[in-house]
Amino acid sequence: MPEDQVDHIKRYYPHAVCGCGGTVQIDRYQRHQVFDLPEVRYEVTEHQCYAGCCQRCGQHHKAHLPDAVPAGQMGPGLIAWINLINGRYHLTLRQIESLLQEQWGLTFSLGAISQSQKKLNDWLAPSINKSVKRFVPRISAMPMKPDTTGIAAPTGSGPYPPTRPPTF
Predict the structure, then answer these.
(1) CA atoms within a 13 Å half-sphere pointing along the CA-CB vector of 50
(2) Would you say residue 87 lies in a domain?
(3) 104-111: long-range contacts at Cβ-Cβ below 8 A with a sequence spacing of 24 or more?
(4) Which of 63, 71, 80, 103 falls between 20 and 30 A from 96, CA-CA?
């Protein structure tokens, strides 16, 4: 990795004076790079909603969380990570529960982990629905022909093999 992309540089020099009493002139160095993962820890943000009472009329007033603050205990980064390791890396909810505990000391129930999937689905639903609406007319306009299984497949060349009549 080029030196300008390295995060930390530590320089080590030989003794300035040789055993014979002469001065050591530095003329070169050897590079040795060590790659490591940074310490990862979770971040907690506490949101405090205050309440009070009008000193004149006695009416109670209560602050509310902003819309951008998640209603549950999991933020968007944790929800995305849980769904990534479940969907892409095929970890079960129980494995995710164990990993959260072992890696970060976080304890969430299987139900809370499962609910994070619903939250992600709810966040993505508008984008997915928009994409589906855009592509469904194209797919339904493709010429179709029935095969022997009764399932319609696109005609012409493509990923589907040509249909053949059954042989008895």
Answers:
(1) 2
(2) yes
(3) 104/40, 104/41, 104/42, 106/42, 108/73, 108/74
(4) 71
| Residues in the chain, overall count | 168
In a domain, 89, yes or no: yes
The beta-carbon contacts of 114-120 under 8 Å, at least 24 apart in sequence, are: 115/72, 116/74, 116/78, 116/79, 116/82, 116/83, 117/82, 117/83, 117/86, 119/70, 119/72, 119/74, 119/79, 120/79, 120/80, 120/83
Do residues 54 and 62 touch, judged by C-beta distance below 8 A?
A: no
Instruction: Note whether residue 36 is domain-resident.
Output: no
Q: Which two tokens stand for residue 85?
A: 């390791």
pTM of the model: 0.60
| C-alpha distance across the termini of the chain, in Å | 65
If one counts the domains in the chain, the total is 1
